[in-house]
Amino acid sequence: MTQPGTTPTRPRRAAGCLQSIVVLAVILGLGYGASKIFGDDSSKSKSSSSSSSPSSASDGKGGSWEVGDCGGPDPENKPDGYRAYDCDESGATFKALELQPASFMPESIQCPAGTDLIIKVSRVYGSGDGKKGGGIPTHTVCGRNLSDDHPGDAGAGGGQLVEGDCISATAKEITCASAGAADFKVLGLVKDKKECPAATTEPMQLMMAIGRPYDVICGGKV
Questions:
Q1: Order of strands, sheet of 166-167, starting from the edge strand that comes earlier in the sequence
Q2: 50 near 31, Cβ under 8 Å?
Q3: pTM for the full model?
């Protein structure tokens, strides 16, 4: 815890996997800042800004992804490089649930429920370590772990914020199992407080984020 244009043909798999530069964008595990405004303000406004910046990796080869393709860490491009694998290979750790266009605005990427990690795919031309961190973004992969560990499920405490998740009073995502009386369950993600459901007890107004489809977290009793 995708780029418009022509429809790519399914890449040929060489040495057991399709070769694609996958850059882990740390828009995965999108937690909500540990404080109400970027970590240091105690006002009633709350921010859903991720505190991590994207890391990059490349292996000098390009490729395309499709829904159902699998991938995992790239041992030649540590620590944040990912590559595609056949789903029955030992290196595979996730499966692509959905592909979305690449975006320079992480908040605009909204993956489906059950997404455990979000990765940015780039195509790199040439080779060598000098290519790390470069490349042309092609699309975004919404991935779900192949293991039984699914932090992106509602209430599990990871992935993107979705209805059914739990948050602290500072808008930080937490597991619902650890939630207490001072915490809240997400009842809705809307643009205006007036759109929150009737059971909302704490509508949390977020700071503006370009591309994010909601500005208010509708919090209710856990």
A1: 173-174, 166-167, 184-190, 216-220, 202-205
A2: yes
A3: 0.66
